[in-house]
Design brief:
globular; four-stranded mixed sheet; three-stranded antiparallel sheet; 2 domains; alpha+beta; Four Helix Bundle (Hemerythrin (Met), subunit A); 13% strand; paralog of FGE (formylglycine-generating enzyme); binds fe (ii) ion; 400 residues; 10 helices
């Protein structure tokens, strides 16, 4: 084996540390994805920084350097490592992050035993819900990483997380009419269930009469859209969407590939033929919006979605229309503050409020979402070009 010269090592190191160009990011990976150890350390950091620090007497951070590595986006909590380079941080490794986790868990146990601070329960509940959000992000990121492997590795063989086992029972397509009127949406302050600050306050919205599809858009419908030139017809697309289709050469949903003339989808259960009856997944908002236009319909607004959605069924209960537990559903609504929205005080005010621009709301939940997050008021959000979330769509149209 030939040893690398010092200058070659230095060049390689500098190349890895340099900011990625747009082309590099497209070809190599996605800068939004994070490694598994990062998710585990970051959710631990959240408890350490936002719950333990200053509350448990004598608590000292496990390692002061971790605040730089595992702060995600909190400006009020100091400088942090750039997100696109998280994948380059291989130390601390799995064992050290496990030690970190156990240490913070132990300190959290001590703090809870003290039963001193009435505000503690709310903070712990937020920390747990934050961690549950990361459990889904973790699966999104693992899937994204595995998708670069031409062997199509299987992460979860039963296919229940994402794959054939997560498919919906075939539902008859149809429309359900709603008369419209003044509707209430959002979470009431008196509601004792947990909700994120962006779901508050409950308020009124005016909705015109509308009709909503009683099933999610399926793989079969998506194949029809593709056959009809859906990805080649600019009249179907928003200007930004069309520019994205062209620059990234989108021809199908993310993770789809053709094998022996048949479309397949890469899932956490490996590569499988596209199921024409199951919900289509891994769409950007741009694609969902273009499809709806092609179908002579549109995406529902948040108010329409929340009005039309069935109450989430208990675990194992029937949800034949697929409102929850299969794919997130893009809406026509921008992620904006509700009338009367007040972000939380301090660093937690950065949790949602500062992202309320250039993002679209998704409603429902996916097969990878923690079941406790399946509620009619939950507001997920991503930029309109994002495709690595478990996202599909449900159609809506004006009352006929
Ligand atoms: Fe986070």
């Amino acid at each position: 084996m030939t040893a690398l010269r010092y200058d070659e090592v230095r060049e390689t190191t500098e190349a890895l540390a340099a900011p990625l160009s747009a082309e590099d990011q497209t070809v190599q990976s996605m800068p939004d994805a994070s490694p598994t150890t990062w998710h585990r350390a970051h959710t631990t950091w959240f408890f350490e920084t936002l719950v333990l620090n200053g509350r448990l007497p004598g608590y000292e951070p496990f390692d002061p350097a971790y605040a730089y590595l595992f702060n995600s986006y909190y400006e009020t909590l100091g400088a942090r490592h750039p997100r696109p380079h998280r994948g380059l941080v291989t130390r601390p490794g799995v064992a050290e992050v496990g030690d970190y986790r156990r240490s913070v868990d132990k300190a959290m146990g001590e703090l809870l035993e003290r039963r001193e601070d009435p505000a503690l329960c709310g903070l712990v509940e937020l920390g747990l819900n934050h961690e549950q959000q990361h459990q889904e992000l973790l699966l999104m990121d693992i899937k994204h990483l595995l998708s670069f492997n031409p062997l199509h590795p299987v992460y979860s063989p039963d296919g229940l997380l994402d794959g054939p086992g997560a498919a919906l029972a075939p539902a008859a397509g149809g429309w359900r009419a709603h008369p419209g009127g003044v509707v209430a949406m959002g979470v009431d302050n008196a509601d004792e269930r947990f909700a994120f600050d962006s779901e508050y306050p409950r308020h009124q919205a005016l909705v015109e009469g509308f009709e909503v599809a009683t099933r999610l858009v399926t793989g079969g419908q998506w194949l029809d859209f593709m056959s009809d030139g859906g990805y080649r017809r600019p009249e179907l697309w928003m200007s930004d969407g069309w520019a994205t289709v062209q620059s990234l050469d989108w021809q199908a949903p993310m993770y789809w590939e053709q094998l022996d003339g048949r479309w397949h989808s890469f899932t956490l259960a490996g590569l499988h033929p596209v199921d024409p009856l199951d919900a289509v997944c891994h769409l950007s908002w741009y694609e969902a919006d273009a499809f709806a236009r092609w179908a002579g319909a549109r995406l529902p607004t948040e108010a329409e979605w929340e009005t039309a959605a069935a109450e989430p069924p208990e675990a194992g209960g029937a949800d034949p229309e697929g409102w929850f537990g299969r794919v997130w559903q893009w809406t026509a609504s921008a992620y904006s503050p509700y009338p009367g929205f007040r972000p939380s005080a301090g660093a937690l005010g950065e949790y949602n409020g500062k992202f309320m621009v250039n993002q679209q709301v998704l409603r429902g939940s996916s097969s990878a979402t923690s079941s406790g997050h399946a509620r009619r008021t939950y507001r997920n959000f991503f930029p309109p070009s994002a495709r690595w979330a478990f996202a599909g769509l449900r159609l809506c149209r004006d009352a006929s």
